[in-house]
Each structure stands twice: as structure tokens, then as C-alpha cells.
Amino acid sequence: MAVHSAPKSSARAKVGVLGASGYTGSELVRLLLRHPNVELVLLTADRRAGQEMRTVFPQFSPFKLPKLVSIDGVNWKKTALDLAFCALPHATTQKVIGDLLAKAPKTKVVDLSADFRLHDIAAYARWYGHEHHAPKLQHEAVYGLVEVHRAAIKKARLVANPGCYTSCAQLAVTPLLKAKAIAPDEIVIDAKSGMTGAGRAAKEEMLFSEVSEGFHAYGVGHHRHMAELDQELSAAAGRDVTVTFTPHLVPMNRGILSTIYVRGVGGKSPQDLHAMLSETYRAEAFVHVLPFSEMPQTRHVRGSNLTFIGVVKDRIAGRAIIGAALDNLVKGASGQAVQNMNLMLGYPEATGLEQIALFP
Amino acid sequence: MAVHSAPKSSARAKVGVLGASGYTGSELVRLLLRHPNVELVLLTADRRAGQEMRTVFPQFSPFKLPKLVSIDGVNWKKTALDLAFCALPHATTQKVIGDLLAKAPKTKVVDLSADFRLHDIAAYARWYGHEHHAPKLQHEAVYGLVEVHRAAIKKARLVANPGCYTSCAQLAVTPLLKAKAIAPDEIVIDAKSGMTGAGRAAKEEMLFSEVSEGFHAYGVGHHRHMAELDQELSAAAGRDVTVTFTPHLVPMNRGILSTIYVRGVGGKSPQDLHAMLSETYRAEAFVHVLPFSEMPQTRHVRGSNLTFIGVVKDRIAGRAIIGAALDNLVKGASGQAVQNMNLMLGYPEATGLEQIALFP
Amino acid sequence: MAVHSAPKSSARAKVGVLGASGYTGSELVRLLLRHPNVELVLLTADRRAGQEMRTVFPQFSPFKLPKLVSIDGVNWKKTALDLAFCALPHATTQKVIGDLLAKAPKTKVVDLSADFRLHDIAAYARWYGHEHHAPKLQHEAVYGLVEVHRAAIKKARLVANPGCYTSCAQLAVTPLLKAKAIAPDEIVIDAKSGMTGAGRAAKEEMLFSEVSEGFHAYGVGHHRHMAELDQELSAAAGRDVTVTFTPHLVPMNRGILSTIYVRGVGGKSPQDLHAMLSETYRAEAFVHVLPFSEMPQTRHVRGSNLTFIGVVKDRIAGRAIIGAALDNLVKGASGQAVQNMNLMLGYPEATGLEQIALFP
Amino acid sequence: MAVHSAPKSSARAKVGVLGASGYTGSELVRLLLRHPNVELVLLTADRRAGQEMRTVFPQFSPFKLPKLVSIDGVNWKKTALDLAFCALPHATTQKVIGDLLAKAPKTKVVDLSADFRLHDIAAYARWYGHEHHAPKLQHEAVYGLVEVHRAAIKKARLVANPGCYTSCAQLAVTPLLKAKAIAPDEIVIDAKSGMTGAGRAAKEEMLFSEVSEGFHAYGVGHHRHMAELDQELSAAAGRDVTVTFTPHLVPMNRGILSTIYVRGVGGKSPQDLHAMLSETYRAEAFVHVLPFSEMPQTRHVRGSNLTFIGVVKDRIAGRAIIGAALDNLVKGASGQAVQNMNLMLGYPEATGLEQIALFP
User: Fold this and answer.
1) What pLDDT score was predicted for residue C2?
2) Of B53, C22, C89, C300, which residue is least crowded by CB atoms under 10 Å?
3) H/E segment holding residue A209
């Protein structure tokens, strides 16, 4: 067949995806193939090096893409990427990016792992059980939740793309903590994620037969995303915030729904909280606040870069229930990463992110 | 084919299922067909009257069952049921049972609807928007959560089988409230149910294409099960209890998981709460408390009459996260109903309820 | 939020979707919202008239769309559509389109129903049980499978968009019948479809709990799509062709996979058949033939307008097994319809159809 | 909790499950725990040796079961099993059973692997790529499809439990081939299986995110089950039979549906074929032939040991479409194995297999 292509602009940035054989990698390729300002020039996948992308993700069969190569074989200087997306496993990442930026210091990097998200290197060591391998880069890294840190991201060389669970919760809670509108010590976040959030590694507990037709919590009381939540929510509140957070797995591919229980303070009613969120996101391209009393559904944002937020009054006076839904592979990972890239390279923020949710 | 049958005892109770064309109805038939002390002599289904059960539920194709009839055509006196299961829609139920017990006062009844669950007739009118149609019977009705009200159930003529969400939450929370071990004003119940909980009525929002591959909350802030929760938890606590309760729909058929956030009082640690639950259910046939720090999964109770309960320490001091899982059609409805029948008719409580969970 | 939009060209066609509350309707809106040459000016939905599209399909909540109106209230002359997509139920369609074209004869129409697909009005009456309501328009209608009838479609005013099952089978078999490379009397088409193919009408047999975790055939021996298959495959073969065709329902939302059993004639081997299909579709934008011996998967075309075709050698000499996969809502319905629109209005054929499959 | 148990008879057979950590192993445990004549005394699982069964399959948490041990540590003579179920991977099996029967020659064995299914050792070597490790035992082994080989199974020491796909197809086709009622050279078997058929090994292609929301064929043209089909169908027909057979994977846990295309010979109509199947299975406990023109669904046999068969007339004269559905883990594996055990140990054939399908 003759490959049809979306119109591409003449001057395009040279972009690479490190770790293209996982789900965030393929999602980056899906988005970047249709991005008018991007030329995909490098795809790495160590265990699949030498193979075509189509053997790893057959949906790309009709498209022309660079062959998968091993990271070790890449000459960063010669490849001269304008921007690299790093979708590698935890820990490896710090070394790879350290090496890349040493050899090609003008390349910009969006890292999708958790490796550069924690500003406090001691907190990193505590949660991850080993010393940080690139502490200097950590100081440089900007936390990449665009709606909160847009200005810093525009000037950043290295952006730490936020986690999916934490993005979802932060978008709902951060504006309320900043405004001191809710009690910081009584936040309960009950989060539910689709299976792609667990990645593509072949583990027994991720088999279809294990997880279909059922529902369960995991990592209760000690999930690593908590460190990231603590950091960002504390920054928003201007004091230490520790939330109760329970992640669950839903038998579906994509989507996170966070059901968040909060108590208004300073006389703030659920309606007030709703009004504050609506105002905060009025001019944002990717956060949509539903009418008061409506709750979001993951299926309505699937495949899009959108977050839907809803606020409902609890029957207990003063308490509100906030729902936030996003696609963990898009706004919770690769779409957010492209949004960061757009800012870092000076493109309009929404470029290449216009996909409308695929429902049903 | 020749139908194989489980051994049946010689003296069997004559039992009927009113409303056999819904999911709780078919689940009753599944359990009763293999119950050694029961003879199924009546199946009603108004819209399918005159049809064989196999046209409504083809899984019963090999089995000999009474033809479906209309309730209006049943002569209660002549039929002389020992026990009737009533799996009819809300409101209809009060009239049908009133009529049945007027004509056949010796028949015992297990009602699976919400019609007789609220002791307070004013609360009923408030939540359901109309006066109760059988207030006298309401006074007679016993709330049928066996593990809480066993003694009363044994002597009851009319048992109100509890709701699926409320059963799940009560089994986890009631013993702790009775013991005044948790703060009654800070209970958050985040509940997730499979789709069979919504019944078999053909509604757009229940279509496969609408609900697969997604997750959402519903009835937030105003779900009717709250009235039942209020009643039972307040009774347990010896004071008014109002909980925060949010139900969600999971793209799976069977199962409820309640994630329950509580705070210990009187110095009770999460480990203490776990020990109290373990002790409460030590001799129970159908409630299993997992080792401390393990959380239950709905798939491990699917098709069985079991409830699995787990307790985990939250990272916020004093707080615990309790998980409770059951199959909404079995322990959450028809299995619970058979358990009630066993007590009411004097059979060993677990008779006919030995099914082991179907996983995977 | 501020709605981001894809770039739109200055001169845009005025387009309407009749029947926007069903799945093919919403899929048209998904595609047309991002089509650079289209302005969506009319959305009808009789039972939801007066509502916003967002109440019917919440995924469109952030987007500006015309309010849903009733068809009866539309002034076709005044509305002056350049093109109308008709996604209405069978039979209604003939009357609506008859009326529309009488009043606005310059409007072009792509009809997604089965109403104008059968050239032979007698065959229509036989399969559908009533006389055709617009026989004159039937003579004008062009069967809209672009890869087979491209030239005629470019000149057409009324195009009958093909059925999903038949599109899938035809793309695989038509070139081989035309070339007389397979035996026309020994074709077996075993087809499997996702649930969206059954539409959005609330029927018991389409409920999640009825269709999840299971698989079954339906309409065996007498599915209406057979009439369309007979017509098109006979035309391709130049003689009467009657195939064996069995549709099945898969517990998934989107996708059709046809497994087609054929026997080569005139010495044609499976490899020869593969070569012929590859050559036929070499320059096509939306049909992709996989390397010999690879079979397609529905998930790799989900959300895209692509059809993937694979050919494998059977172990019985001379026989081949052909697999064809497409997304029933895109290439099997709304994407195909936009492809037709592009030809009818003179746009490049692939405009607005560049979506890459959403996997996982 | 207090474990409730089904009544057990006083004299029980000592039974072991070799390979208890896979799905057929856990399914055996589910069935045997409730079998009145069986005492489960041995569970092996090499990689999980030393663990409790509940850590591998939490649904067994409330039940008392032997701890998992390594096969190498079992003293076969001392353990003195009456019967061993062998649910081990291919090839290992031949060695283990050879060793077991050498040391405990009175133990009976039901083997669920493919290792002893092929009578022809040369065919085995051809399909599996290595010499058979226990050719003498192969000569002794009886092929364990009860409905076809009941008499031989009753006297057997070693039974080769049939494959799931082949059981499903044979039950539908064998009686017709025996009666020479269908053309042996024109049989097309299009088979669809749930994911548990692929086992519990952690492979990327079996992850939830890979297989949900999609459908595909696999092993097209060269699936190993073909050897078993060839053997059994040829035996039935009294001549060589080679069928076209294509397996597919359905995003569900349990169930196989075979859609089988046949042509009647000797004037046999589809109705005649239906009558012959009905007569063949009239007295069978586990094969149910639906009324003519009805097709079976996998969901209606889920969790039961039943096979449902349906026959429909094709619109091509003389051709019929036969559907057969079973649960691949029950009648397609562990239920069939228990049925074999019952015959081998002299219990009524249906003992412990009375479970009714779990639908929805």
C-alpha cells in the first residue's frame, strides 16, 4: 500500500525515542508520526535491536520508520538529536541520559521514567533503595506537569515527565491546595488504572487470564508514586502534605480514574471548589472541568491528551468528591511528553495532540 | 443427553423463585438445582411466562425445570411453598409478598429486593419517594445478614436479604464499630462493582460497548444503598453513623471490592483491627480474613459464597485501609439468600453453598 | 478549557450527520471535527433532539458542535448542505434521503445504512420483506467500496456505503474472483465482529453481562449481509457466487476479522494469491497486505481506516487461508464514508483519515 | 473462618496433582476438593515448592491443602497414590510418568499433556521434533475421550487426556464420520479459544494489554493439535482424514467454540446430521445437543463439564454448519480428566462434575 501521510512542515526537529518497544514508546511513535514538526530519526530497543518496528508493534506495519537499534551503538554527537524522549526502565535512565547529555549537550530530553522526578536526592535514595546516579542533572531537571510548571519547562533542557497516577491527582488537587481551600491532612485518593500502566514486561500477574474479570488494589500503603505526590502537593500547599493513596487495577487497557475525597476549609463549599477548578483551567487546552455534579469516565478521554475533572457534593457537610480521568498513556505519559516537547522546542503547545477520544 | 444429578435427600422442601428471568433469579436456580434438600417447584417471570427456562438462560438447557409462569396465575395456597425467594423489582415486591403471605401464611420468604430492608418506614418513604405498601410486614421482616443477625433469622418468616454493596461494607466494618475501635465519622467507602449488579434490564448505559474498556463512578453522593448502610452501621455503633460511600462500575461481570478508609481510636492499630476481624470470623463458614497486609481480589471469590477481607496499615499513623471482596450475585445476593433459607428451614448453614471460586 | 483545534482550510464544505446519536454517527463526528475541509453544521437525533451532543457522547464535551435537532424540523433547501451523511436505521433512510434530495438536489449523500446497497430491487424486497421506497434513487446509487468502484464514486450524488462484514470480505476476495484465481463455489467466510457492529440500541442480548466472557455465532445461514456479498462477489466473478458466511460476536468493542477459506484454481498457489493481492493494493492508501504467512489482528487497525490482509498456506494442497481485519466503525463504516466524501467533493482521498491505530 | 466441606465418603482414593501451579492444575484442585471419593494428598510445583497453594492461587486460601513440593523429592512407592493427574509441560511428562510407573506400578495416571496422545511414535517425532521418551508406555496409553473410548478407559492404567480443541471438534464430527454421513475431505474447523488455553506462562503475547480488545488467528496451517485430530478423525472414518483447522484467540478466559463446515453425503441433510448427533449423545451425561438451528455459546458451559452442540442448515444445499462449545479447562482438560478418573477407579462417571455453568 502507499503510505498516506499527514502534512509535514519543511523544517522539522530531529527526534529520537529511547525505549521504543514498550507501551509509552509506541504511544510516542503514534503521536510523533503525525506531528507536523517532527522527524523521527532514532528508535532504540535493546532486546529487539536490528528488528523493524513492525515486528514489535504490527500497527506500524504500513509506515516507514527507522530500524530499532541498541542504545550502546548510538553516536549521540553524530546523531545530533534536537530532542530525545527517554522511555527506559528506572535507574538505567540516569546513566543513559548522563551519557547522552555529556556527548550531545544541546540535545533536549524528556524523560518518562521516575528517575528525575524527585528534587530531593535523599528522598530518591529512600524510596528507590540506591543513590542517585546523576545528582547534578537532577538539580537541572524540571518537573514536567505543564499546567503547573509551564514557564520553567519552556526553558528546560531536561524535563522529568510526571507519573500517570500523580498527574491525575495533581491536576485535581493542586489548585485547591494552592488556594488553601481544602484540608491538607484529610485527602484520600482512591485511584484505579488500566493495565497498560503496568507496562509490557511479561509477568504472570499481568496475563490476561489473571487480570480479566476481576479487580484488586496493589501496592497499598507503599506505592512509589507517593514520593512524587508528597513533593508536588507539599509544594502546592506550602507545607508538608501526606495523602492516603491506594492504586487499583481495572481490567481495561487505558485510563486512570482518581476518586478523591476532600474537605473544604475556610467555608469553601463543593460548589466553590468546582468554581476554582473551572477558573484555573479555563484557558487550558487539555484539562476540561465538567459541569458541577458530573463525574468523568475514563472511556471519554481514551486516546486523547485530555483530563476530565468533576466535582460532586458529598452528603457529609463540607466534604466533596472529586473525580479526575485521563489516559495513562497519553496525558499520563506520552501525550504529556509531546506537550513538554512542544514547549521546549517552541511549537504551539497542542501541536500533534488533537486526537479526539476513541469511544466506544 | 441424560441429565446427571447431584444426590438429593428424600424429604425436600418445596421452593419457588419469583422473578427467575433476572440474574439473581438464575443464580438462585444454579444453586438450588444442586441443593440436596430442595425441590424447585415454581419459577415465575411475567414477561417470559409460558417459556421454558432454557430460552431465557440457555445454560439450563440440559436440566428439567418447571416452566416459567406469571405471578398472577399462581395459587399460593395450593402451591403451598415451604419457602419463596422473591427476586422482583422494587415496589412490586411489597404487594406480591403481602398477597402471598395473606394466602399462604406458612410459607417462608427471602426477599432479595430492597423493599423490606429499612426498619424505619419514614426513611423508606424518604429514600424511595412513596409510602411503604406493607408496613405490617416490614415490622416482621428480619434483616438477613447472617453473620450479624443469625439468631433472629432462624426464627423469621420474612427475611430481607441485604444489598450487595452493603453486605460487603458491613462485614468489614460492623465488628469494628460494635467494638468502638474506629472513628464513626471518618469512614470512607470506595466501592467497585461488576456489571451484573446493575441487573438484566436493557438500558443503553449497560451495553457492552458503553461499559467495556472504561471505569466510572455513579450515584455519587446519593445512592440508595446508603439508607441501608446508615441503618445497620448506626445499629452497630450504637449511635448515628453516616459514611461517605461512592460506587463505581468495573468492566467485569461479577464481584464487589470495597476499599474502606478508617481511623483506629482508643489506641487501636491496624494490626489490632485485623486481629479483631480475624477473631470475629474465626468460626464463620463464609467470611475469610486474609493475613495482615494482604488485600483481597474479586476474582478469588467469583462464583463462591465467600467474602475475603484484608487489612493494611496506611502510611498515615493510626489509619488503616480495609479491603472486602465478594461475588455480588452469590454472597451479595443469591448465595446469601440460600444461606438464609438454610437457617430458616433448619438445614446446616452451608448446605448447597460449597462451590469453590472459579478462577481464572 | 480552551478548545484546541486542528488547522482548518478557509473554504470548507457544509456537512451534516443525520443520526448522530449512534456509534457510526459519533465516529463521523470524531473524524469530521478534525477534517480540515469540513464544517459540521447539522447533527440530527430524533429522540435526543434539543440536547447537546455532549450529553449523548460525553467525549465531545470540550468541543463546539451544533445542537441535536429532529430531522423533521430541518429545512433542506435553506440548510444547503454540500454533503449529508445518513446514519439512520434501515427503511427510514429511503424516505429521508428521498425527501432531502427532492428539496436540495445539489446536496450529495453518503448513506451508511443498507437501504441503497442492493441494485436489484427485487432482491431488496426478498431480503428485507417490503418494497423499496425509493426505487429511482436506487438506480442512481453507487456502491461505495472505494477500492473497487472509485471512478463511479467520484461522479456520484448518492453513495451507498458498504456494510462492515462485506467490506472486509470483499477487499480480500474480490481481486481473486476477478482474476478467476479461486474456486467461486468453495468460499467459506468465518467472520468475527466486535460489539459496536450491533449498534447502540438497548437490547438485552447486547448487555455487558450477556456478552462479556463469551463467544457465539449468530444469524447463521441467513444474515442479511449475504445479499450484498452475493451481489458484489458475483459482479467480480462474472457469474453467480454464493458463499458460506457465518458471523460471530467477540467480546470487544471494535474490529472485524474474517477468516476466509479458498481453493486456488488454474494452478494458483497461496503464494500466487498473496502476490495478486499485494499487487492490487500496492498503491492503495488504506489496504495493507502483510508479508506472506502473517495473519492480521483487529487490534492493529483499531481506530484507523486501514484494512490488513494476510495469506497463509493451508496444509491441504491448493487451499489458502486469508485473514482480513478492519475497524468496523472506521473502514467498515464512518471512515469509509469520509473516504467516499473526499472523492465526491474533490479532496485528496486520505484527508482527515490519517489516524494511526490505537494499540494497546 | 471455619472451612465448610462437602460430604466425603469414608473410603477415599489417594490422589495427587503433578503440576498444580498452572491453570489445569488449579482446576483439578477446584474439582477434587469437592469430590466425595477423593483425598488430595500430593500437590507438586517445582518452582513454587515449599509454598502453600494459597500463595499461588489465593482462591484456595480458606481450604486445607498439602503444601507444594518438588516432583524430584516425591517417593512414589511410599506415597502410594491410587491415581496421579499429570499437568506438566510437554516432554517432561514422559520422563516423570515413566519414573512414577516404574516405582509405583499400581498407581493409575491421567496425563493432561500431549505426550501420550499420538499412538504412532513416528508421528510424534515428526510433530514434536524429538524421539518419544517412553515408547512402551505409549503403547499402553489409552486416548481419553470418554464418549468415544469409554470401554478401554475403564481398564486403562495410563490415560492420555485429549486436547481442548480436539475434544471440541471430535465430539461434533466423530459420530458423523463413523456413520459416513459427511464428506471427509471438505471439513473446515474454525476454532476460537479463551486465553486460559494458552496456559499461565508469562509471555508478552499473553499480557492483558496485548490480547484484550482484539481478536486474531494463530498457528495457522501448522498447529500441533492437528496430529491428534488426524489420528482420531481418521480412526473414526476408517480412512485418512486431513481437516482444515484454524485456531483463534478470544479476549475471554474460558471457552472454545468450534464452527465446523461440513457437507452431507449419501443424501444426508443437515437435519439428518442433527438427528444422528442427538441419538449418539442421548444417554451421555456431558454432551448436550441443542434443538435444530440453535447454535451454542461458550458462556453457557463455563465452569461446567458440558459440551453443547448445535447444527444449522447452510444456504448452500447439502452443507451444514455445526457449532460445538465447551470450557477448555473443564471438559477440555481437568473435568475430562476427572471423568476419566471416575471410570478408572470405578466411581459413577459424573461424580464431582455436577457444577452448573456460571453465567453471567
Assistant:
1) 61
2) C89
3) helix A208-211
Under DSSP, the state recorded for D163 is P
Q: Which 3 state secondary structure label does DSSP give B260?
A: strand
- Environment class of A32 (CB within 10 Å of its CB; exposed 0-12, middle 13-18, buried 19+): buried
Element (H, E) at D157: none
List the catalytic residues of A: 164
Q: How far does Cα C356 stand from its chain's mean position? A: 18
Q: Is D261 on the interface with B (CB under 8 A)?
A: no
Angstrom distance (rounded) from CA B285 to CA B335: 12
Tell me which chain A residue has its CA closest to the CA of residue C197: A360
* D198 contacts on A by Cβ (under 8 Å): 209
Query: Is A62 within 8 Å of chain C by CB?
Result: yes
Residue appearing with cell numbers 429545512: C75
- Phi, psi of C71, deg, nearest 5: -60, -40
Q: In which residue ranges of chain A is pLDDT below 70?
A: 1-7
Q: Do B217 and A257 touch (CB under 8 A)?
A: yes
C-alpha distance from D300 to closest chain B C-alpha (Å)? 4
Minimum Cα–Cα distance from C221: chain D residue: D314
Of the candidates C207, C187, C217, A194, the one whose C-alpha atom is nearest the C-alpha of residue D248 is C217
Q: What is the DSSP string of A8-43?
A: --SS-EEEEEESTTSHHHHHHHHHHTT-TTEEEEEE
Q: Are A308 and A277 in contact (CB under 8 A)?
A: no
The answer to whether residue B4 scores a pLDDT higher than 70 is: no
**Which phi and psi (to 5°) does residue A68 adopt?**
-70, 135
Q: Does D269 touch chain C (CB under 8 A)?
A: no
| Greatest CA separation for chain D | 63
Q: With a threshold of 0.90, does the pTM exceed it?
A: yes
Query: What percentage of chain A has pLDDT greater than the value 90?
Result: 94
Query: Hey, which residues of B are catalytic here?
Result: 164
pLDDT of residue A2: 62
The pLDDT of residue C139: 96
**A217 in reach of chain D (CB within 8 A):** no
Average pLDDT of adjacent 10-residue blocks, chain D of 360 residues: 61 96 98 97 97 98 98 97 95 94 98 96 92 95 98 98 98 98 98 97 97 96 87 98 97 98 98 98 98 98 98 96 98 98 98 97
Nearest to D323 among C217, C251, C302 (CB): C217
**ipTM greater than 0.85:** yes
Is B291 an 8 Å CB contact of chain A? no
- Tally of CA atoms within 13 A in the half-sphere of B341 that contains its CB: 33
Contacts of D211 in chain A (CB under 8 A): 208
Q: Which residues of C touch A4 (CB under 8 A)?
A: 285-286, 350, 353-354
Rounded Cα distance between B86 and A46, Å, is 62
User: CB-based contact (8 Å) between A330 and chain C?
Assistant: no
Q: In what order do the strands lie in the sheet with A142-143?
A: A68-69, A38-44, A13-18, A83-86, A108-111, A158-160, A142-143
What pLDDT score does A5 carry? 52
Cβ <8 Å between C283 and A359: no
DSSP assignment letter at A198: G
Q: Could you give phi then psi for residue B271, rounded to 5 degrees?
A: -60, -40
Where chain C has pLDDT below 50, the residues are none
Q: Of these residues, D81, D164, D301, D320, which one is catalytic?
A: D164
Residue A79, helix vs strand vs coil: helix
pLDDT at B5 > cutoff 80: no
Planar angle of CA B136, B139, B142, nearest 5 degrees:
130
The whole-angstrom separation of Cα C17 and Cα B149 is: 59
Cβ-based burial of D102 (10 A; exposed 0-12, middle 13-18, buried ≥19): exposed
Do residues B251 and A250 touch, judged by C-beta distance below 8 A? Answer: yes
